[in-house]
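Fold these two proteins, one after the other.
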Amino acid sequence: MSKTKKKKEFYKIKVIDAGAKGKSIAKAPDGKIIFIEKAVPGDVVDLKTFKKRKNYYEARVTKKHRLSPFRNKPMCVHFDYCGGCKWQHMDYKKQLFYKQKEVLNNLQRIGKIDVPKPLPIIKSKKKFFYRNKMEFTFSNNRWLFENEIKSKKIIDDRNALGFHIPDRWDKILDIEECLLQEDPSNKIRNSLKTFAVEKNIPFFDIKEQKGILRNLIIRISNTGELMVIVQFFKDSKEEINAVLKFLKNSFPKITSLQYIINPKKNDTIYDQDIIVYSGKDHIIERMGKLFFKINAKSFYQTNSEQAHKLYQKTLEFANLKGNEIVYDLYSGTGTIAQFIAKNAKLVIGVEIIFESVELAKENAVKNKLTNVKFFHAKIKNILNQEFVRTHGQPNLIITDPPRNGMHQDVVNQILKINPEKIIYISCNSATQARDLNLLDKKYLVTKTQSIDMFPQTHHVENIVLLNKRN
């Protein structure tokens, strides 16, 4: 019989830093690092470990002796359990400080490159209600609070519509109010849940793979349009019609009401058919003088105001004179390509999601841009010398990959193509740093600029300008 390892406890430990994944950092008496949830640098706390590794511990706060001067009172009633806004208890200026520090640390430690002094991080005017897209999950197995468990009462109310509990794929925290998206987001979510409970429409059971209601997506554009998408697990026509009819009648401001029938084990929608129940199959976002058609599968930056600043900074870094050829990799619906097109000779976008490419083409026509082209392909398959011979040697390559960064084949192809400049945009400075290390043999980082797209979280967007070495 194995013995249970005793959990270590530490007393009156000062929290000294904030690090990766939104966790705060302290040092144990034995010199090991302690990663802590829900603490703020400057706190003095007692801790109990729940995980021990060779070089670090993970611990929870059991008692607070002294609170940091950088602490805020969280506005959200769900802060203690929701994994979304992990830094809501930290002063916003300090959030910005630690975001920029984390980016610089990753570029230097992982990238092992010389980094110039970063430009000051661009803060967000909106601290809450800044997201244009939210996704909520239905579950018949909601997260139970400690007082509910201790009561030992039979709890019949187990339905939830909200967010996954961190590290618990099977548990959903029921959300009363989310401060990340403006109304009518909360009203739609709460009203739909109430209606579904009253009508006994089964919420999804992820373990048993049964139920009807599975997922809810709400997109609100800066032009005032509203898209609502409901994902159902099976084609139960009576329940589906009841849900959609309720939403249409209760919220006449919905301009695009759509649904999905998804019997798969995962709830990703990119391989699913999207069915329009009423209204249009898209909404329109505006950025400066440009308009972008966004559909259910489109990637679009979730903070519209900060996205505009991101693209303005990209245009500034590009410093185009009007005679350049630009490649825009991972181009999505063509937002960056079209934003910079007025200053370039030709912009070529490459994107793997077919629907996004088709929208990019439509958007270019809508915006009366004739010097942009978009291609649907895996970048590592299409970006070769033949492609360059056909479309021209790029003076600048802009790359904005997903969180896992660029495939190494893409990095190697960029090095072979040998543009004069590269602009690398990333929402994950760790993978960005990894790729910059590979580019370092030919390119020098000359500018780096962080932009806070996600207030109250540890996430941050970062732009790097690379110039060819002499």
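Now the second one:
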Amino acid sequence: MRIITISREFGSGGRELGKRLADALGVPCYDQQIIDMITQKKNLDKNYIAHVSEKDVRVLYPSTIGKHIIAPNYIGHQSVQILVEQKKLIEELAAQGDCVIVGRCADLILKEHYPLNIFVYADQESKVARCLERSDESEKLSPDQLVRKMKEIDRNRASHRAMFASSRWGSKENYHLCINTSGKEIKALIPGLTAYVSGWFGAK
């Protein structure tokens, strides 16, 4: 079974890389689809679920989420349920077969599946340029505002990982492959990455 997880810095193109890689391999890619599935099942606001799905939820939560005991009653039980449901859904999707899963600590949740864990990063200039190129017209964020947004989102992702493990988000020793997309077109990286994936799983 080929399970690939993509962790990424905001603006690095990790989401696009995951989708293009999945298309090249002929397997499903799960990213926003996870939010959509939880939205349908829980009948909750999609934006709220997305807000919770990659943030630090400081609660005394059940062992089905993570390993660390944190101060209880920090936020509502509903947020805990969303994370429990997300973890369960990620496990169910992986059990169905080959796939690429973007974000949401899938590398830790699916460690018993022995996934190929990829971390995508880039320099600040490249991330700002990518965000400006693809930003919604309604946002109109300045480069300085984008930098603050990137740092905030990445802090949230690092804190979210801390709920599952003590290993640091973004540290190279936690991943099998780290990809620097600075100044690169994502689609140009896919042929080489596809060959790497074939070699990785072929050697198992």
